[in-house]
Amino acid sequence: MNRSPLHQQADTLPDLIAETIDPFARAVAESLPAPVCSNVQRVFLTGCGDSHHAPLNAEMAFEELAGLPCEPMTAMQFARYGAGFLPDTGRGSNLVLAVSVSGAVSRTVEALRMGRLAGGTAVALTGNTTGPLAAEAEIVLPTAVPPLPAELQGMIVPGTRSYIASLLMLYLVAIHLGERRSRLTRARANKERRALAAHAELMAETIALSDGPARYAAEQWRDARQFVYCGSGPHYGTALFSAAKLLEASGDIAVAQEMEEWAHLQYFAREETTPTILISAGGRDAGRTVEIAAAARAIGRRVGLVAPRQTDLLARTAPDQLLPIAAPLHERYAPLLTCLPPTLFAAYRAQLLDEPYFRDFGGGRSIEGGGGISRIRSSDQWDTLPD
Which pTM value belongs to this model? Predict the structure, then answer.
């Protein structure tokens, strides 16, 4: 089976880390001076779609490395329900970081505007430094994704490169805040940056490890009509991202569920054989992952596991399909790896079913005009804080 455009884009991700980590680190250091960092008491992360999934997965890094409470929210939640209630602890105490690689998503632009009006320090993490999101920001962190190789340009493929770039930049911001706030020594901060750089090789290893199993799982589950992805902590965003890639690639019904919440809700679903993919790096969630796997098997679910091949989770969960990752250097960085096997699975699923990406933009879908009738980039926006 030839490697599809989505496979080929996934293959570029290790090089993307290697190419961008140094310029991204310099951009963070130049854009976030010590006075800005020292005043921060809380961090709010916001975005839409993949640009919301990345903040969810970065929360652990901000709390561990920067020592700051961090709250990721969807842009709609933050703009219209959260921004008006930012703690009144002084100018600059709330850091509001909005993520949008295109820099033109209406709701994210609105969220950053509301955060700024509420007194937060407004930071845009974007690949478009002259777009509407950047215009709302006090600080812009340029997160441009390098061009694809010439043979891959022009292909419309479910996004993976922008997600990895956003996640990498968020990790670097967390490290920088920790260093500037003296939570991390310079030596420790540099060690963390080297750990991030090392994930380029770990990503390449993960792709090599999981490509065959992802194809096999797609073949074994060809008859499935829906899929459920589960994750907790820094893996809940991966579950959302994984479901999104499958939906975009093959059009399948795919949902994400927080690991604990699966036992309270999905356990009762009528479709007993639904493939249920558990995502874990063998960290704090390991024990509950084992229990959820047992519960899923007991009701007839087909269980998949995205986890390090070295972990004892394989023996303890006995999954029908293992989608292995390389051993991460720390659970907080594992999302750089755990997103890869589900992406490869989505690519093989679409290829086996001969489904066009994005349903070939039929019906009201559109790549023009801000998403067609959904008006992702042309939606109405609030100009003042909601009452």
Answer: 0.96
CA–CA dist 276, 255 (Å, integer): 10
DSSP 182-205: TSS-HHHHHHHHHHHHHHHHHHHH
Over the stretch 147-157, which tens digit does the pLDDT of each residue have?
887 777 777 89
Domains of the chain (ranges plus CATH)? Answer: 5-184 (3.40.50.10490), 209-355 (3.40.50.10490)
Q: Tens digit of pLDDT for each residue in 233-250?
A: 999 999 999 999 999 999
- Residue 15, pLDDT > 80, answer yes
Order of strands, edge to edge, in the sheet holding 275-279?
253-258, 226-231, 275-279, 302-308, 321-325
Beta-strand ranges (E) seen in 151-291 are: 226-231, 253-258, 275-279
Contact yes or no for 150/166 (Cβ under 8 A): no
CA distance 229 to 240: 7
Quote the CA–CA distance of 169 and 27 in Å, as a whole number. 9
